[in-house]
Amino acid sequence: MSVVAVRTVRGRKDLLRFIKLPWKIHAGNPHWVPPLILERKRLLDRRKNPFFKHAEVEIFIAEREGELVGRIAAIVDHLYNSFHQEKVGFFGFFESINDAAVSTALFDAVRAWLKSKALASMQGPTNPSMNDEIGLLIDGFHDSPSIMLPYNPPYYADLCESYGLKKVMDLYCYSLMKDSMEHSRVDHLAELIRRRNSVQIRTLDLKNFRREVERVKEIYNRAWEKNWGFVPLTEEEIDNLAENLKPILDPDLALFAEVSGKSVGFALALPDFNQVLKKIPTGRLFPLGWLQVLRYRSKIDRIRLFAAGILPEYQKRGIDALFYSELFHRGTSKGIEVGEAGWVLEINTMMNSGLEALNAKRCRTYRMYEMSLS
């Protein structure tokens, strides 16, 4: 068999080939959701994505006889390593045909590059950071993922594990059907918590969007700092994320919990825009993709609980139940049939058991892998 050649991406033509490879890998799979090419370009733009201000990234493509057969990125997040006092490198954006020779060549390229940076281990996939799409799908291939969750063929796990990558953490997603949620019990609990803690729930004020983002900044890093794999978002990254999400968010599904006028938590459920993206198979909004957006946006019937955070001193008071109750009633009033929560760390027993108590069913598992670079 001919040799697999791996080289770094150089120039716009290479980058576009890198971005468009998934269309070849997932051809004919009805569950894969094509991303917007413009969004992928923005994500990888070292000038526009503030992640690159504290990270180094090298991206590679694999070719065999001139045919593109794989891709991968090597990533050093200096903020992650500073926060955790570790020497971890990451791999991301992994795509490959079902051929161990190709995946091995790609992982070898990443390992060599990360070792040149004096790092001790490699984790992944992260696309490109722990605050973006992460993990390799290992079950739940029967359905399309919700917005901002990855999808890959089942054989990817075999390619990773045959190379020597080992599980470091699993991440769970839960699906909750409108007609199966134990909402009466949750509503009763929510009312008790509302009275006991004098908690008020309000929706995001789009007219004061910048001020609302500042409130999220105050909560986010404190609420999640003890979680496995957490890396704080910089102010620029939060601003960038907020601007990217603004066109698709529904302010009625973006909630703040307040005690005595102070914002102590927030929850954000996103309409599953992947249902629209599936109607744009080219990944391009122009010339006709935007018409599909206008046509199908109002037909979205699934939401994803994208983020929920509560300040540490207000945790374990049941405020999360208030969020679940509010989101259920607000979502169903808008025609939402399915709610998805995720991802949730496998070690987060409180949230896992809480979702299961609502009659939520685990629908997908993502896996983070790790290996030593020594």
What tags apply to this protein structure?
single chain; 374 residues; alpha+beta; 13-stranded mixed β-sheet; two-stranded antiparallel ribbon; 12 helices; 15 strands; 35% helix; 29% strand; globular
Oligomer: single chain
Distance between the termini: 30 Å
- Give the integer mean of the pLDDT values: 95
Shape: globular
Largest sheet: 13 strands, mixed
Q: Count every beta strand, where a strand is a DSSP E run of 2 or more residues.
A: 15
* Rg (CA only): 21 Å
Structural class: alpha+beta
Helix fraction, binned, reads 25-40%
What is the helix tally? 12
Strand content: 25-35%
Taken in chain order, the helices and strands follow as EHHEEHEHEEEEHEHEHHEEHHEHEHE
Low-confidence stretches: none
Explain what the structure shows.
- The mean pLDDT is about 95.
- Helix 4 (about 100-115) crosses helix 5 and helix 6 (about 185-195) crosses helix 11.
- This protein has about 375 residues and is of the alpha+beta class.
- It is about 35% helix and about 30% strand.
- It has helices at about 10-25, 35-45, 80-85, 100-115, 155-165, 185-195, 210-225, 235-245, 275, 290-295, 320-335, 350-355, and strands at about 5-10, 55-65, 65-75, 90-95, 120-125, 125, 135, 135-140, 165-175, 200-205, 255-260, 260-270, 300-310, 340-345, 360-370.
- Strand 13, helix 11 and strand 14 form a beta-alpha-beta unit.
- The protein is globular, with a radius of gyration of 21 Å.
- The longest helix has 16 residues, at about 100-115.
- The two termini are about 30 Å apart.
- The strands form 2 sheets. Strands 1, 2, 3, 4, 5, 8, 9, 10, 11, 12, 13, 14 and 15 form a 13-stranded mixed beta sheet that branches.
